[in-house]
Amino acid sequence: MSQPENRQFRLIRRPVGHVKREDFEFRTEPARAPEHGEIMVGVEYLSLDPAMRGWMNEGKSYIAPVKLGDVMRAGGVGTIIESKADGFVPGDVVTGALGIQTVATLAAKDCIKVDASLAPKPLFISALGMPGMTAYFGLLVVGEPKSGETVVVSGAAGAVGALVGQIAKIQGCHVVGIAGGAEKCRYIVDELGFDGAIDYKSDSVPAKLRELCPKGIDVYFDNVGGQILDDCLAQINLRARIVICGAISQYNNTTPVKGPSNYLALLVNRARMQGMIVFDYADRYPEGARAMAGWMKDGRLKSREDIVDGIETFPETLQKLFTGENFGKLILKV
Amino acid sequence: MSQPENRQFRLIRRPVGHVKREDFEFRTEPARAPEHGEIMVGVEYLSLDPAMRGWMNEGKSYIAPVKLGDVMRAGGVGTIIESKADGFVPGDVVTGALGIQTVATLAAKDCIKVDASLAPKPLFISALGMPGMTAYFGLLVVGEPKSGETVVVSGAAGAVGALVGQIAKIQGCHVVGIAGGAEKCRYIVDELGFDGAIDYKSDSVPAKLRELCPKGIDVYFDNVGGQILDDCLAQINLRARIVICGAISQYNNTTPVKGPSNYLALLVNRARMQGMIVFDYADRYPEGARAMAGWMKDGRLKSREDIVDGIETFPETLQKLFTGENFGKLILKV
């Protein structure tokens, strides 16, 4: 069988600061035929995530860095073209770390088969995929919100933040989101049902937090780090929980990360700050996906995808995450 | 009955940076006679603690600031001179917030009667008092060390740190202390049985941590903040626990507190950083004191007091905490 063409982005240089097109090679080669246990997948949608920036750096992290010369790592959803693995047949829809390429050949055991009749394919890399599981387990397991408590989330119009806020509302919390721009703020309040929104680009975050969180902050779900983390720390309650999910404001730094000057609020308030990585909850994904799908079916949870067409736009499209341009889960349509 | 003379330090100015003698008025007045429910105590030993610096500042903290004009707050131990409270009689030994003064008149319910036949009086404001309870509950409840894990403690020759390290050894941990100066380092290893010591004044803390903690850090008990907190964060293990007990390096800052730049190690390692205040464990002090007294009796736990004579030396003696001059629990003998 003649192999299909595979267009792909390989990382050829460790980016300094913001990612540039020259950090990658965009090339075309024949797709590799699957060996025993492997499948060949026609990639349809790729997930673009802030964490990808970290994977491009050298050095130990929670996951190995992408090696120079390798296809850039990315989660995705696609349809099997050819299979040498039991239980996987052409036409099956799978999700997994497919990479920024049009055709992925990889071990079937590293993929998850999904029922594409349940939801549009992009959802399997959005609310029903990694961002959904991050929001679900990060908020519920690490944040431990209780009904009546105040939950603040940053990056609130982003893939994870929008879900965190809605799940917190479902738990009976008072929910305030921090996002950039009037349109995103209107969206999280009017469309998603947040109790309040703070536009960090035009509002004074400390003053607005005082106004919108009159009883203080019990749970802060942090996607951004930097000054906003400090502003939230300054207003936490006794025994508050801070979930460190990301620090998008710091990922492209060429200077040291800004540490939270107000971390002694943890001492004064006997509060905790705890990091979370979604992969730790892999054995509980089915539980999370079931809950999320149920809430979506009931109309209590909405998911918004920002789908950009064309794998060739990858380096520039990824930048939308860091400039605050994306609105909802950023997805590349292949 | 003619009232005894009471010599006392009253806070008359909020210190800027380091505490100065001029921030206080040292005066003599007649002791106040006890009213119903009160006792008059002849103060014998006063506890000097880093937290006192925070109590001198204006603004919300875990405890109200000392008001300008009030006697400086301090824990102490002394003997009842006169009592108008049931169950308290002259000659009883009590601990409580006696304040920097020679005679304290206060509500008996705010004091704890201790059995002075069990231990020398200074111990009731050291290993069997607040520093002991801080070490015991901070390490065991917040730090949750497990046998075989690596525990690092800063301020390791100080009142709390020295006890933390010894309790961690009793739990079967590999224990490394960070202290200032060769004498303190020798003390914690040779006298207290720590597995290793780092002299932050002459060693490279990162290099020494790598050498002495080859398996990484599972629990870091932080008394100092600043650069040492960052150095430890850089070497934590998966699911590490960081106990924020104090930040003595930052208490006299006139510039903003240095936040931990490496806080994203919490994310990468799914670790947590949590503050602790000893007062939260007040209902469990008897349990803690019993355990500590038992270990001392068995010779497994040693306590060292640095006793300075003369209430009139208070402002200068307090400074020993911040210059690193004290060695063991700093106590003022009245």
From TrEMBL, chains A, B:
Domain of life: Bacteria
InterPro entries: ADH-like_C, ADH_N_2, ER, GroES-like_sf, MDR_fam, NAD(P)-bd_dom_sf
Enoyl reductase (ER) domain mapped to chain residues: 20-332
GO terms, molecular function: oxidoreductase activity, acting on the CH-CH group of donors, NAD or NADP as acceptor
Alphabetically ordered keywords of this record: Oxidoreductase
UniProt KW Oxidoreductase keyword: yes
CDD domains: PGDH (cd05288)
Listed PANTHER family: PROSTAGLANDIN REDUCTASE (PTHR43205), PROSTAGLANDIN REDUCTASE 1 (PTHR43205:SF7)
Descriptive protein name: Enoyl reductase (ER) domain-containing protein
Organism: Acidiphilium rubrum
Lineage of the organism: Bacteria, Pseudomonadati, Pseudomonadota, Alphaproteobacteria, Acetobacterales
